[in-house]
Amino acid sequence: MYYDVYIDIVFLTNLLMDYVLLCIVGKLFLRKRNRGRILLAAAIGALFSCLILYVLPDMIFPAKVLLHGGCAWGMLVLGLDLKKNGLLVKALVTVYLMAFFMGGLMEAAPVKKATPIRFLIVAAGAYMGLSALIYLSDSFRARWKNIYPVTLSYRGNVQPFFGLLDTGNFLVDPISQKEVFIIKPEVLDALLPQENADRLKHLKENPGELEGTEPADLHPHFLPYKTIGEEGVLLAVVLDDLCIHTPREVIHVANPVLALAVEPSALGKEYQVLLNSRILH
Questions:
Q1: Which of 38, 59, 278 is CA-nearest to residue 180?
Q2: How many CB atoms within 10 Å of residue 15?
Q3: What does residue 138 show for φ and ψ, rounded to 5 degrees?
Q4: How far apart are CA 79 and CA 125, in angstroms?
Q5: What are the mean pLDDT values of the chain's consecutive 10-residue runs (281 residues total)?
Q6: What is the number of other CB atoms lying within 10 angstroms of the CB of residue 165?
Q7: For residue 55, what are the CA distances in angstroms to 52, 58, 178, 198?
Q8: Strands of the sheet with 221-227, listed across from one edge
Q9: Which one-letter DSSP state was computed for residue 28?
Q10: φ and ψ at 269, to 5 degrees?
Q11: Nearest by Cα to 102 from 45, 43, 17
């Protein structure tokens, strides 16, 4: 049995599919979405799919999966500026799951003959439906658990986390007089090269190691703190940007001061940042 395959339809369908998938993944992973970059990445992905279909039609299935996986990897880096391997793997798995999900919706769509129309209906429905689910999930966390999506950035590296609004955190940096946010060590691991993160974590033992190095740009310093039955100092750094994504607005904090938790295990598993209560009140 033979089928007529039109290259323009294949390209357009893949272009729309890739664009919608990248937008959904960008929303899920709290990435700053540049439409131009996403469209360029989607166009490259669509062109790659056309080349595989017409140039290498008889390629074995495992090889096609690897090639498509490599293409999706490149699309995520170009379109969403994902750089960390761990986050990239999660985003790649999400892309494949969403692609299967949307493929199933297309097969179940009532419009059977007009492929572009059917795809547009499914794509619009899937995007709006998932956006609504993400909004409801974030609203539930914010209202019942006081947990908000948070993005932190340093030198162009933007990473998503979750932050708990700690009503007891009124800590202020005595140097800059800015509110202080408490973070787990994994936050530094995600934002910095491993060597620099390790240097910061051992700053108290080896203070001379930072002189003339990149971590010195983070303005590391120590903050005094006092709790019930305990007092000491916290290592603090200054990043480029922090955004708290509440259901109603995005709260932007320039050059936020973040202090490394003394006992990370005391923080819950659902969040990596303790938000300062002065910010949201």
A1: 278
A2: 19
A3: -65, -40
A4: 22
A5: 66 83 79 80 88 74 77 85 71 79 65 59 71 68 74 87 81 88 88 82 65 70 78 87 85 91 75 85 62
A6: 21
A7: 5, 9, 59, 48
A8: 221-227, 230-238, 257-260, 180-183, 273-276, 157-166, 147-154, 241-245, 250-254
A9: H
A10: -80, -20
A11: 17
Model pLDDT, residue 105: 65
Backbone angles phi, psi at 32, to 5 degrees: -70, 115
Task: Please give the Cα distance from 53 to 20 (Å, whole number).
Answer: 21
> How is residue 47 written in tokens?
């062109």
User: Identity (one letter) of the amino acid at 234?
Assistant: L
Say whether pTM exceeds 0.70. Answer: no
Measuring CA to CA, which residue among 211, 216, 257, 215 is closest to residue 234? 257
Residue 200, token pair as written in the block: 């910061």
Give the tokens for residue 202: 């051992």
